[in-house]
Structures are given as structure tokens and as C-alpha cells.
Amino acid sequence: MTATDWTRRTAAELVDALAAGETTSVELTQAHLDRIAAVDGAVHAFLQVDTDGALAQASAADERRAAGSPASALDGVPIAVKDVLATKGLPTTCGSRILEGWVPPYDATVVARLRAAGLPILGKTNMDEFAMGSSTEHSAYGPTHNPWDLDRIPGGSGGGSAAAVAAFEAPLAIGTDTGGSIRQPGAVTGTVGVKPTYGGVSRYGLVALANSLDQAGPVTRTVLDSALLHELIGGHDPLDSTSIDQPLPALVEAARQGATGDLSGVRIGVVTELGGEGYQTGVLARFQESVDLMVKAGAEVVEVSCPSFVHALATYYLILPAEASSNLAKFDAMRYGLRVWPEGIENASAEEVMRATRDAGFGDEVKRRIILGTYALSSGYYDAYYGQAQKVRTLVTRDFEAAFAQADVLVSPTAPTTAFRLGEKVDDPLAMYLNDLATIPANLSGVPGISVPSGLAEEDGLPTGVQILAPVQADDRVYRVGAALETLLEQQWGGPLLAKAPTLDALRDGSSLASSGTGDQA
Amino acid sequence: MPESPRSITRDEVAHLADLARIDLSDAELDHLAPQLSVILESVAAIQGVAGDDIPPTSHPLPLSNVFRADEVVPSLTAEEALSGAPEAEQQRFSVPRILGDEQ
After folding, report:
1. Which CATH number is A458's domain given?
2. Rg of chain B over CA atoms, in angstroms?
3. Taking CA atoms, what residue in B is nearest to A339?
4. Of A198, A359, A367, Cβ closest to residue B60
5. What is the strand order of the sheet A121-125 is part of?
6. Which member of A198, A336, A443 has the closest CB to residue B85?
7. Residue B38 domain-assigned?
8. What's the confidence (pLDDT) of residue A508?
9. Cross-chain Cβ contact A359/B25 below 8 Å
């Protein structure tokens, strides 16, 4: 080990260290690659590690800085990218067999912006297949393990990005959030995750799950780091027709303002329907503690009711499968990805090849959702299911509008429980879906949300999170309130929550787990 | 409007898998059909929640057609576009036969 462990620093601290000449991008990129080599055999946050590419990008970053012309504030700070974003020259699988080994010929806009800003890409992170799931257990390449307890799930679908950041394998990561896939992994791994306003970050090159719900965003250890990353990846993109053609609010400034810990004049709404029954005792206790701290810091708390939220889960599980069944129709074994010839059929037709390929290439959860979506869109059922879901979506948005007339932000626990054990819910789809109870309404209406660590549940010692939601295009509010809550809680804890997580250092010393698998698609 | 809530039969799942172009084995049908029934019974609860006067939302932000300037920009080469294809021939995607013997 070196005297300075760069992997324990926040991205903002690395920015300062690079600017002060205390380290180089090559040194800290190498430090993170070493950490990945040491612990990722056990954590399995990465599907692909790009050692050579990351070091080459780091070296270029150092040259720019030496010449006095860094490409951005974050130039040289390494990052991990969820495997659902297209990366030119680097395999992109979406956690699916059907895209095994696919190397995109282009970059997603988010990735292009990371490259232009000089962030070395460490690799691609594990996820539930096509982002369908809340545990990463639906990845075709094996689950990711929660760094707090390797027998437990890291959340999902972006469990790989959250675990990479929580295990100090990367200071920053990109996630995507369709029903909570950034925020819920954040909550169960003790990290920060932000779902920006729908349209706030380009979806070009993001392999679509449900295109009216998907949104890419930052996965980090601090609120300020998320703001730095969000400002870098966000903003209008002419390649995404649903991208918002307006400037982002000042997010870093909002995070710095919030970090003072003052919430005077801020009205905080506690959503009645996102709490109570179905929520773990320790999760609720930590949530109440956070609300009390915000009151002490000057916030005014009101209780708001959003009656349609009780139907949000059912609405989501009609709209999402409907969109997913359409989006995944492109995996037809013709232009990219897997092609499987059916057994026992001579001179098989394109359609027969397509059927065999989709059976072999898709996992159970993907099949469930495609079939459910096909059903919801079938003539005769369309009005009763999909049409009705679209109307309830309107009601959810009206509830948000009414709530934001009474409060500047809304708060709730991010996830109803702490991390459960691997395998516990993998074949019980309905139980798995309940993990996204509190996060789904934001996706239905496009509003931004953040999850901030709120402590450890008393009964199991595992992390919990608080979710803060703001009106569309008021992302700055989630950063202000999120940073304030982070400051207030860390004052109470005497440091960040992740300081209490297992170091995983024992894995460094030749354990069999640590030496297997890293860098390969296993 | 169909009767609610309803479960879904194994035969219906087989038909839907056919529409979605997925070959499901008998074992998969046995496994997935009951799970889909449970999910469907659960989501069926939204029937009747919103009245006829509620407009549907298809997209979180109100958008009309979006155009960008008609400028020529670099695009993928044929080689790049074909780089992920299971099979390519003469700068084209090579696919299995698309017509039946009787066609």
C-alpha cells in the first residue's frame, strides 16, 4: 500500500489534489485499478475492466494538466460506467447473453462527454439484465455483492455502479434509473445516487428499457460529487429528441450552499403514502431522525398526501413492460448480438432463428416482462391495462403538482427495506417489485430525486437512505437539501457513513475469491 | 372491458410468447405462467382507478415534434454498422431465409 490511499478520497478532493500537483491521474487511476484487482473478485461490480484504456486516458489527462489546459474540472478523475451505455471499442452487454461480446461502434452522449472532459473510464459495471430488477441477480453474468455484507444484494438494477463506489473501486460512476435503479442501490449500499429530471441528461446511446422512464445520472459517495458529475453529463443533446433544450440549474452551487447545513425557509413535505406499512422499522426510524434533523436546521415540515401513489407500482408494471416489449423487439439476431440456430430444424427461417435466439439470449425476468408487455398491448386488453395505466400516470403527476404547491421538496425513505440476502427474492417477482415502491412515482412524472445515506438500521446494521424529490427542472433543490442532510448527519456520525463499512482489505491478501474473475466477463 | 381481475392460462402465455417471438420450452411455460398470473392479478387493481375524463400521459414532459438543423454530420461507415452483425456479406447483413418453401 502507498502512504496515501487515493481510493478513499472524494472526487472533489481528487480534483483539488490534481490541481495542486499532489498526484497524477495515472497514479490515482492505477490505485483504483489495483483496488479493483484486490476486491472485485468478491464484489463483482465490474463486467469489464479496461486497464490499458483507462491508463492511456489518464496519461493524456496528465499531459493536458502539465500543459496548463485541463479539459474540465474533473479531468483525470476516473469513473465507472454502467454496462447499459454504449462505449465505442469497449464491450456493452446490458447484463444480457444476447449482447455478449457486442462492441458498439459509437459512444453514448454521456460517455462522449466523459471522454471529452478527460475522465478515464475504468470499466463497465454489472446490472440486472436490461436494467430489469432491484438486486443485480438478474444479470446473466452473476450477481454483484454488497460491500457491507457480501451475502447480500447491492440493489439494482445499477448494483454494479453503487457497489463499485461503495467498495472504493471508483470515485464516480454512471447509473440509470427507470424505476429506482440509481436511488435504491444508493440506499442499500450507503452511497449517493441522483435521478435527474427526465430529459436532463441525454439518453442517446443508452440502451432503452422503457424510454419514457429511463434517465441516466450520477452515482457517488457525496452529494457534491454528484453535482460535479451531473453538471458535466447534463444539458441539451440534439441527438436525443426528448432532451430538454434549456440550461441546467446551478447544481454545484446548490450543493455547496446546502453543505452549510442551513435549511431556513425550506418547506419539506413528508409523503403520507410513502411510509408505514411494508417499511422496515429501522428504515422508518432513520427516516424520522433525518426529518427531525432537517427541522432543527430550520426547515418547515408539512405532511402531504399523494393518494394516487398507491397505484404507482401497478401503473409502472404495465407501462414498463409495454415499452420494454417494444424496445427489445430489436434483438432479432440479424444486425447485432447473439444468433442461435434452432436444433433439429434444417435450413431454419429467419423467424425460427429469431425465436431460438431470444429464448437462449434472454433471462427469466426479461421474458416475464416482454410477455406481460405483449399482453398489456394486445387488442382487447389495451384499454383496460395500458390505456388505464397511462391515465393513472396523469393522476400521479397531478398529485405531485398539488404536493409541490405545499412544499419545496418531498421526502421519504428511498427503499422500504435494507439489503436482503442474495437469492431471497430472485424467483418471487412481486416481492422483488416492491423494492421500488417509493422510487417509481418520480419516474412516472419525470421529477428529479436523490438518495442520501441516512444511517444504519438498528436491527441489522445495514445502510438506509432518504429520498428527496423536487419539481421537474428544479434539480438544484435535491442538491441543496441533500447536501444539508448529509452535513447534518455526518456531524452526528463524526464522518461519512461508509467509514463504518467493512474495508474488504482482507481480500487483498491472496484469498481465492480475490484472484478470480476480475476483468473478464465471468 | 374484460372481467377483472383475471389470471392468465398456460396456453395464453404460449400464445403471447409466440407473438413476442420467443421459443419457450414446456418447462419454462410451467415456470412462468403461474408467476405471470400473480403479477397480472396484482396490476389489474388499477382498472377503474381513473375515470373517462382523465387524459392519458404517454411521456413525462409535454413535447411536440422536435427538429434539429439539417446539417451533414459524419455517420457510421458500412464497416462500423456491420461490425456487430452475426454474419455479413458484401457490405450487407446476411440473414437466414425469410420465405417458406411453399412461398
Report:
1. 3.90.1300.10
2. 23
3. B86
4. A198
5. A46-49, A121-125, A79-82, A172-176, A216-220, A192-195, A449-456, A463-469, A409-413, A267-271, A300-304
6. A336
7. yes
8. 64
9. yes
Which 3 state secondary structure label does DSSP give A9? Answer: coil
Is A354 in contact with A88 (CB distance < 8 Å)? no
What total of structural domains would you count in chain A? Answer: 1
**Within chain A, which residues score under 50 in pLDDT?**
1-2, 510-522
The pLDDT tens digits of the residues spanning A37-48 come to: 999 999 999 999
**Cβ–Cβ below 8 Å for A358 and B83:** no
A164-187 pLDDT, tens digit per residue, is 999 999 999 999 999 999 999 999
| Alpha-carbon separation of residue B8 from A30, A230, A318, A375 (angstroms) | 54, 43, 15, 10
* Residue A518 domain flag: no
What range defines the domain where residue A275 resides? 7-310+394-508
Which residues of chain B make contact with A370, given a CB cutoff of 8 A? 20, 22
- Residue A256 burial by CB count (10 A; 0-12/13-18/19+): exposed, middle or buried? middle
Q: Of A313, A388, A400, A401, which to mutate for an interface test with B (greatest number of B Cβ within 10 Å)?
A: A388
CATH number for the domain that contains residue B43? 1.10.20
One-letter identity of residue A365: E
In a domain, B33, yes or no: yes
Residue A388 in domain = no
Tally of structural domains, chain B: 1
- CB pairs < 8 Å spanning A and B: 185
Would you call B29 an interface residue with chain A, using a CB distance cutoff of 8 Å?
no
Q: How confident is the model at residue B101 (pLDDT cuts 50, 70, 90)?
A: low
* Residue B57 located in a structural domain: no
- Whether the pTM exceeds 0.80: the reply is yes
Give residue A515's pLDDT. Answer: 37
Q: Do B42 and A390 touch (CB under 8 A)?
A: no
Enclosing domain of residue B39: 1-49
**For residue B12, what is the nearest residue in chain A, using CA coordinates?**
A375
In a domain, A333, yes or no: no
Å between B100 CA and nearest CA of chain A: 7
Answer yes or no: is B76 within a domain. no
